[in-house]
Amino acid sequence: MMRYSRIIGTGGYLPDDIRTNDFISQTVDTSDSWIFERTGIKSRRIAADHETASSMAEVAARQALEMSECLADEIDLIIVATGTPDLTYPSTACLLQKRLGIKNCAAFDIQAACSGSIFGLSIADQYIKTGAAKKVLIVGTEICSRIVDWTDRTTCILFGDGAGAIVLEASDQAGILSTHIHSDGEFEDLLYCPNLYINTEQHAPYISMRGNEVFKVAVNTLGRIVDETLDANNMDRSEVDWLVPHQANIRIIAATAKKLKMSMDHVVVTLESQGNTSSASVLLAFNEAVRDGRIQRGQVVLLEAFGAGFTWGSALIKF
Ligand code: UT7
Questions:
Q1: Are 300 and 318 a contacting pair, CB within 8 Å?
Q2: What parts of the chain have a pLDDT lower than 70?
Q3: Which of 42, 142, 146, 296 could bridge across to 278 with cysteines, CB 3.0–4.6 Å?
Q4: 249: closest CA among 46, 104, 37, 86?
Q5: 180 in active site
Q6: pTM score of the predicted model
Q7: φ and ψ at residue 200, rounded to 5 degrees
């Protein structure tokens, strides 16, 4: 019998503080209309001083565990995707494990920038398919506001904070149909964020991005991953009910929807009020559409992401 990874719970957390485009326009040379037209973003959430990637992850994870009706102790693997860990080590996954009171399971972080949660789903799916794990918690959590240069109008308008979570369980019912992950380290210069410990005049510890060049690669690459995913499943694009994309730019999302010949009504968009939450964005969007009843059991959902590295990937799911 085929063994699948079935989604049994989702969760999300967004900090209370809403930072609008108008607010940012007071400190850098930009405007609400420029930001909204070029990106689709109106506002983003900003974590409070006491919050961390692990504290936000805990709230999202508890929600996902509650929906899944499984006890924290049943989780046998925790994967956290983050580019903004609380500490260099222990991993944010270990800090989350402690917060959740889970004993005796493996917990580790992965770093694939904005594609982190897709990479996490892919790893978890392999563990479940091989029988090495039965219940896996995956969390994408980011405090982007702490690695953004708030004087740089080309980046500070884009990012937001938050956490998304998912619980997968081994099942004979589908499930994740396939995952596809890729990396190309050639593109470091187009999008990177130095570590604090190599901070010099030349290496400020902030996100640096050549947005327009990233944009073009993202559109082309995401178009290709749609084909790769459908081909691998012998599926026609008309069979996909929902697109849950990484939330970087509404124009990138619209290009992927067009590739799928999908109306924007079937695309989950959270970007307007959340901005780009990096590795949290896909799981936050998925959680929102599951909880508000848009995504229904039995439907086919395509998740995809693109980020620094470059990294990119997709997951095709029968929910
Ligand atoms: O999540 C990881 C992957 N990241 C992405 O996928 C992001 C991809 N890139 C983007 O989303 C877009 O490239 C941006 C939203 C970052 C920028 O939009 P764009 O249409 O590519 O603009 P641009 O960089 O070509 O800049 C156009 C103009 C420039 O002025 P000049 O040179 O034409 O005079 C910029 O200096 O807009 C200027 N500009 C701004 N103006 C007002 C750049 N940022 C701003 C701003 N407000 N915040």
A1: yes
A2: 199-200
A3: 142
A4: 37
A5: no
A6: 0.97
A7: -135, -175
* Domains of the chain, first to last: 4-172 (3.40.47.10), 177-318 (3.40.47.10)
* Structure tokens belonging to residue 306: 């693109």
| Ligand 1 and 218: CB distance under 6 A | yes
Which amino acid makes up residue 295? I
Is 153 a pocket residue for ligand 1 (Cβ < 6 Å)? yes
Atom 27 of ligand 1: nearest residue by CA position? 212
Q: Smallest Cα–Cα separation from 111: which of 218, 176, 55, 185?
A: 185
Our mutation pick for probing the ligand 1 site, out of 21, 38, 249, counting the most ligand atoms within 8 A of Cβ, is 38
Both tokens of residue 185? 């380290």
Residue 199 has a pLDDT of 66
Which one of the listed residues 114, 144, 156, 193 is annotated catalytic?
114
User: CB-based contacts of 25: which residues, under 8 Å, 6+ apart?
Assistant: 31, 32
307 has which bridge partners?
Answer: 311
Contact 145, 278 (CB under 8 A): no
Please tell me the chain's helix, strand, coil percentages from 3-state DSSP, rounded to the nearest 5.
40, 25, 35
CA 147 – CA 207 distance, rounded (Å): 6
Answer whether 168 contacts ligand 1 (Cβ < 6 A): no
Say what the pLDDT of residue 97 is.
Answer: 98
Tell me how far apart the alpha carbons of residues 39 and 67 are, in angstroms, rounded to a whole number: 33
